[in-house]
Amino acid sequence: MTSTPPPLWIGSIKVDPPILQAPMAGFTNYAFRQIVREYGGVGLHATEMVNARGFVWLDENEAEHPDRLWGVREEARPLAVQIWDNQPEVMAKVGKRLVDDYQVSVVDINFGCPVKQVTEKAHSGSYLLKHPKTMFEIIRRLVEACAPTPVTAKIRLGCTRNNVNCDDIAKVVEEAGAAALTVHGRTAQDFFSGSADWDRIAEIKQHLRNIPLIGNGDLDSADKVVAAFENYGVDGVMIARASLGRPWLFAQAHAALRGEPVPPEPTLELQRQCMLRHYDMIVERFGEAKGTVLMRKFACCYAQGKFGARHFRTHVARVSTASEFYGVVEEYFPRDLDAIEAASQ
């Protein structure tokens, strides 16, 4: 890295390092964020995305607020909460509540989710990329309701490969008053197939006057994070799926940006211990039965790409109690070859 990138400013919020943890439904809950914090390297954490209309219903019926807001009041700042819906007044109401009651640092709007339940059924997420006037009004109303807390937006390149309209959408986002724009380098049609188009992300920069551009997509190594800053002119990066089983990835990227030696991957034994800490936090929140089921997908992420991962996934996908989970981890979670040889002697 020729020079360390400067901190990223989202309104009055300083994001240093300019590495953001992506909001991911079903994954980036309080437990995951705490595990990431143990390793460091994140300038701005984010919750799972919150359904604004569902939040309002819970609020009006005096029910407990969504599990996706677990820990938000107590944890360290800065912290972003991402929300989604297609009704400006509902979004504004929830944004104001997040600012007034939860004191969040940033309210982020999801205009990028490609999942059919959000797009086709709820006409939200990336569906709204076809409706820039609605996007403008949602952002404008949220900016007004949340001030002075900054509002940001996350988009994809477009809905389909034949309708890439991110340049025009970027202008809409800025004109509506958003404080930053994050772009995932695929269209909604792509979901997560193929490769993120970072050249296309880079082209958006010329269409923004004052707000920072954050790039997202396929950042699965410290080298790729460095390359994003050096080659594509982004002001910040957002790391998503690659961090789910490797929460230390942010710290590795941060070291690389500072020109320092990149910390090696933890040993498999340390990774196993990390996964067990993660499990304990999930169970403490949700109880043994629900927590064990929720942890199955996280456990699969921790094993991904390792020797024996498929065998481990087959067994961990069936666990329903703590004793079963610990037993499967003990017997099947991938181990260091040196540890296996030592045990056999």
TrEMBL record:
Cross-referenced CDD domains: DUS_like_FMN
GO MF annotation: an example: tRNA dihydrouridine synthase activity
Domain DUS-like FMN-binding: residue ranges: 21-330
InterPro entries: Aldolase_TIM, DUS-like_FMN-bd, DUS_fam, DusB-like, tRNA-dHydroUridine_Synthase_C, tRNA_hU_synthase_CS
Gene3D superfamilies: Aldolase class I, Putative flavin oxidoreducatase, domain 2
Annotated active site: C113
Swiss-Prot/TrEMBL keywords: Flavoprotein, FMN, NADP, Nucleotide-binding, Oxidoreductase, RNA-binding, tRNA processing, tRNA-binding
Its EC number(s): 1.3.1.-
Binding site for FMN: P23, M24, A25, Q82, K154, H184, A240, R241
Cofactor(s) listed: FMN
Domain of life of the source: Bacteria
PROSITE patterns hit by this protein: UPF0034
Reactions this protein catalyses: a 5,6-dihydrouridine in tRNA + NADP(+) = a uridine in tRNA + NADPH + H(+); a 5,6-dihydrouridine in tRNA + NAD(+) = a uridine in tRNA + NADH + H(+)
UniProt enzyme class: oxidoreductase
Function: Catalyzes the synthesis of 5,6-dihydrouridine (D), a modified base found in the D-loop of most tRNAs, via the reduction of the C5-C6 double bond in target uridines.
PANTHER family: TRNA-DIHYDROURIDINE(47) SYNTHASE [NAD(P)(+)]-LIKE (PTHR45846)
Family: Belongs to the dus family.
Official protein name in the record: tRNA-dihydrouridine synthase
Organism: Rosistilla carotiformis
